[in-house]
């Protein structure tokens, strides 16, 4: 039985900060950001967006052409969750009108939670081949202002449907995995910003890559050059370069010129260069970037995928691109969404960053900004109120939105 990715879509906020603006304000040479870490812009979520609205926006498009009644599970990976008890998956399930006979739950293990969901979905559809799984990965990457991590912030959501009718990527069953108890990056419940030991986190990332690769190689019998392209978790783009050169060295392929090695990862970096880290969504944003921006026909090409979540857990796996995959991508919509964004000046970036929802239980109406199809309208009686944005046209799509669920959804 073939199992894999049938549809793939992403959403990133309408607003971004150019890292040139950040560099000027922080007195840093902009080349450190543009070249040193490989990042140019970072997406900034508006005050009326959260992981639910971003995921709903991505899911709306991932479900185009899919019979919604076939969705048997919604698995939502995030590390910027909005509730300690209720899964963000249930809010999206409701906003998108998914069938009641469905499992909906949240998964957490830093950036690797989405890959845990993907692994779990393979078993789910193998046992229930008539059903499909909607995987959501949505995060706001947030560090302290004026900290080394600030330039690696970002936001976004990825959504994918996994089924026995894959149209984009056929996932191979061999996986290499790794877990180690480390404090490289974490976020205690009382903080909105992650704590991080940046340099150490890079070391652990590479160690986890070594170990996950070794198991994957043993299981699959595949070597480095059995893969045509590689996508790595992207906390910042330079990390992918470090990871790929590390893997080439580890597998004794460091005689290949750097230029040739880097051509195996470069097209996967275009989107994250201008969105920043989107934690759980980042690897899948990289995969979309590769598939959608590559000038070559990738049919039949094997892509190696490495997922890393601080703390830490990692996985190496791979898949083969399916014939006709281009027809099922949302390349034009994604390109337009990225091109039509609005640049923030530094004061507005700080305003967005410093905006907080009340934590004392008072009711609150969220200021209205440019969002996708779904927004966070506010809080009432301790409940987040989501609404359909009400705009007549989805700014990232040419289709009108009539016929979609127009009611606000108050999810308790
Ligand atoms: P830093 O320490 O301020 O930067 O922050 P640096 O001094 O290491 O410089 C960065 C690079 O820029 C270096 O390149 C410099 O040489 C270069 P490298 O040596 O690494 O190749 N550079 C310049 N280049 C050109 N012109 C210049 C210039 N100046 C310097 N003028 C750090 C960097 C990554 C530590 C920081 O941004 C950080 O803490 N980020 C957050 C943590 C992180 O992203 N870790 C990555 C691995 S952990 C992970 O991936 C998981 C994560 O996504 C979370 C999760 O799983 O949930 C984070």
Describe the structure concisely.
With 412 residues, the protein is an alpha+beta fold.
Describe this structure in words.
Strand 13 and strand 14 form a beta hairpin. The protein has helices spanning about 20-25, 30-35, 50-60, 90-95, 115-125, 200-220, 235-250, 260, 270-275, 280-295, 330-340, 345-355; strands at about 5-10, 15-20, 40-45, 70-75, 105, 130-140, 155-165, 170, 175-180, 185, 195, 230, 300-310, 315-320, 340-345, 365, 375-380, 385-390, 410. The chain folds into two domains: about 5-345, 3-Layer(aba) Sandwich (Peroxisomal Thiolase, Chain A, domain 1); about 355-410, no CATH class. Helix 3 packs across helix 4 (about 90-95) and helix 6 packs across helix 7 (about 235-250). The protein is about 30% helix and about 25% strand. It starts with a strand and ends with a strand. It is α+β, with helices and mostly antiparallel strands. The radius of gyration is 20 Å and the shape is globular. The strands form four sheets. Strands 1, 4, 5, 6, 7, 8, 9, 12, 13 and 14 form a ten-stranded mixed β-sheet that branches. The protein has a four-stranded antiparallel β-sheet with strand order 16-17-18-19, with helices on one face. It is built from twelve helices and 19 strands. Bound molecules: 3-hydroxy-3-methylglutaryl-coenzyme A (HMG). 3-hydroxy-3-methylglutaryl-coenzyme A binds near residues 111, 233 and 238.
């Amino acid at each position: 039985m073939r199992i894999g990715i049938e549809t793939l879509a992403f959403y990133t906020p309408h607003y971004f900060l150019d890292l040139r603006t950040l560099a000027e304000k922080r007195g840093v040479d902009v080349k450190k950001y543009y070249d040193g870490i490989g990042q140019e812009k970072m997406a900034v979520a508006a005050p009326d967006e959260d992981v639910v609205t971003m995921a709903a926006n991505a899911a709306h498009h991932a479900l185009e052409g899919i019979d919604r009644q076939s969705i048997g599970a919604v698995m939502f990976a995030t590390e910027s969750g909005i509730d300690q008890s209720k899964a963000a998956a249930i809010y999206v399930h409701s906003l998108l009108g998914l069938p009641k006979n469905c499992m909906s739950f949240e998964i957490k293990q830093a950036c690797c939670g989405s890959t845990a969901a993907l692994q779990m979905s393979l078993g789910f559809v193998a046992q229930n081949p008539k059903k499909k799984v909607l995987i959501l990965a949505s995060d706001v990457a947030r560090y302290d202002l004026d900290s080394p991590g600030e330039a690696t912030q970002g936001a976004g959501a990825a959504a994918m449907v996994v089924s026995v009718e894959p149209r984009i990527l056929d996932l191979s069953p061999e996986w290499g995995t790794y877990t180690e108890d480390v404090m490289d990056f974490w976020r205690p419940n009382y903080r909105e910003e992650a704590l991080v030991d940046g340099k150490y986190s890079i070391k652990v990332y590479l160690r986890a890559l070594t170990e996950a690769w070794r198991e994957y190689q043993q299981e699959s019998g595949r070597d480095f050059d059995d893969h045509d392209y590689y996508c790595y978790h992207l906390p910042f783009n330079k990390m992918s370069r470090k990871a790929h050169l590390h893997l080439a060295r580890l597998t004794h392929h460091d005689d290949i010129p750097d230029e040739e090695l880097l051509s195996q990862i470069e097209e996967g970096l275009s989107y994250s260069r201008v969105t920043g880290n989107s934690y759980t969504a980042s690897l899948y944003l990289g995969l979309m970037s590769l598939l959608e921006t590559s000038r070559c026909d990738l049919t039949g090409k094997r892509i190696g995928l490495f997922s890393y979540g601080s703390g830490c857990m990692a996985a190496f796996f791979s898949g083969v691109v399916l014939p006709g995959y281009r027809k099922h991508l949302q390349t034009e919509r994604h390109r337009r969404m990225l091109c039509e964004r609005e640049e923030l000046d530094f004061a507005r970036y700080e305003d967005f960053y410093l905006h907080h929802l009340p934590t004392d239980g008072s009711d609150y109406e969220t200021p209205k900004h440019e969002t996708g199809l779904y927004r966070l309208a506010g809080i009432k009686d301790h409940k987040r109120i989501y609404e359909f944005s009400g705009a007549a046209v989805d700014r990232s799509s040419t289709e009108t939105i009539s016929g979609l669920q127009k009611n606000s959804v108050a999810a308790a």
